[in-house]
Amino acid sequence: MSEPQLMYSSKINKIRSFALILVFLGIGLMYIGLLFKKTEWAMVIFFILGILAIVFSTVVYFWIGMLSTKAIPIICPSCEKPTKMLGRVDACMHCKQPLTMDKDLEGKEFDEKYNSRKYKREEKKK
Ligand SMILES: [Zn+2]
Fold first, then answer.
1. Are residues 52 and 20 in the same domain?
2. 61 plus 108 within the same structural domain
3. What's the gap in Å between 74 CA and the centre of ligand 1?
């Protein structure tokens, strides 16, 4: 098990940085491909991998766009900047303030588990 994280970044930000990493990875792979100019097959493989990473990042960016339309825009109570929430619990994009849509969870310690289907199912049983 990993150590409990103290700082939570908002989900949209997390996915966005993941997509950004993918873009750099793609460019990096293509750059490595250039170093293999003499070995044609290696160059082609690195180029294809690079293009795949970039295509995948485009898909992820598109997905963020879809998620953003579903996210609920709110004003963060802590820094008073507009942010977006995904799921029952999320963190502010600006100040990482944990936020919840559920009155029952207010005041409780921030936990990603509140978003999981398993938790919701268990709560319904009660
Ligand atoms: Zn905030």
1. yes
2. no
3. 10
Predicted model pTM = 0.66
Helices (H) and strands (E) counted in the chain, each on its own, are: 3, 4
Distance of CA 2 from the midpoint of ligand 1 (Å): 26
Domain that holds residue 112: 73-125
Same domain, 15 and 65: yes
- Structural contact between residues 19 and 62, judged by C-beta atoms closer than 8 angstroms: no
Each of the 126 residues of the chain gets a pLDDT tens digit; together they read: 444 444 567 888 888 899 999 999 999 999 999 998 899 999 999 999 999 999 999 999 998 888 888 888 889 888 999 988 888 888 888 888 888 877 777 666 667 777 777 777 777 776
Tell me how far the alpha carbon of residue 123 lies from the centroid of ligand 1, in angstroms: 28
Could you tell me which of 44, 52, 43, 53 has the C-alpha nearest to residue 20? 53
